[in-house]
Amino acid sequence: MDIEKTLSVQKREDCGKGPSGRLRSQELIPGVFYTAKGENITVQAPTLPLEKLYEEVGHTTVFNLEIDENGQKSTHPVLIWQVQRHPYKKCFTHIDFYGVDLNKEVKVDVPLEFVGVSRGVKLGGVLETYRESVRLSSKPLDMPKKITIDVSDMDINDTVNMADLQLPANVTAVYDQNFAVVSVLAKAKDDGEEGGEEGATAAAE
Fold first, then answer.
1. What CATH number is attached to the domain comprising 158?
2. φ/ψ (deg, to 5) at 162
3. Do 182 and 115 have their domain in common?
4. pLDDT in the model for residue 200
5. Region (Disordered): which ranges (predicted)?
6. Burial of 65 (0-12, 13-18, 19+ CB in 10 A)
7. Which helix (H) or strand (E) holds 31?
8. Do residues 13 and 95 both lie within one domain?
9. 83 and 114 share a domain?
10. Which of 117, 121, 154, 185 is the most buried (most CB within 10 A)?
């Protein structure tokens, strides 16, 4: 599998609140590239290409970060590590890139997607999800973008635990306890309904 996406950024020299604010006014997002060797390189990324890329790769898909330093360009395989957003505008304010070695495993929190309508829900049960993501380990190019769980065959009182997840080849789940991911629970009786039934019985007597 080859790396399909590339984001071009520039190395930046000025750091701090003032310079970062000026960058944002120019549609540039300040960021840091943490190399696989432990170095930190400050960069600036164009807003629109960054937002488009993030929609496609999230935190799970490797892409190439092309860094321009005074006309000298270098390319590095990376994952998006952390993003910071404006509290109400929701636009990016800062981003961290994490350099990876394509031959070494990484651990990433991968989103879960639940599809289908379970048999238990059709019979009156309630679908209860406990996790939005799970931590997986694999080489960077083997990491899935998401894990899809089809709940269609789940009956009332059925549970899918971490050990039950169907994962791609060369991918393993990282966990200490075999915790529940999703369950179908019996719907609890409403206290008001129970009281109403008892009242009706008493009146009939």
1. 2.170.120.20
2. -55, -40
3. yes
4. 41
5. 1-23
6. buried
7. strand 28-34
8. yes
9. no
10. 154
Q: What is the pLDDT of residues 146-191, one digit of tens each?
A: 999 999 999 999 999 999 999 999 999 999 999 999 999 998 776 5
Asked whether the predicted pLDDT for residue 104 surpasses 70, the reply is yes
- pLDDT above 80 (res 193): no
Phi, psi of 194 (to 5 degrees): -65, -45
Q: Is 157 helix (H, G, I), strand (E, B) or coil?
A: coil
In a shared domain, residues 77 and 121: no
Residue 199 has pLDDT above 90, yes or no: no
* Statement to judge: residues 121 and 86 lie in one domain: no
At 189 the pLDDT is 72
Amino acid at 57: V
The helix or strand, by DSSP H or E, that contains position 93, with its residue range, turns out to be strand 92-99
Q: Does residue 204 fall inside a structural domain? A: no
User: Whole-prediction pTM value?
Assistant: 0.82
Matching residue, tokens 């990376």: 78
Residue 72 has pLDDT above 60, yes or no: yes
Check which CATH number belongs to the domain holding 79 and give it: 2.40.240.10
pLDDT at 140: 96
Task: Give a yes or no: residue 118 inside a domain.
Answer: yes
Average pLDDT value for residue range 121-148: 96
Residue-range definition of the domain harbouring residue 51: 6-100
Angle, CA 34 vertex, CA 32 and CA 36 arms, to 5°: 160
Report whether 161 contacts 178 (CB < 8 A): yes
Strand partners for 68: 10, 73
The number of domains in the chain is: 2
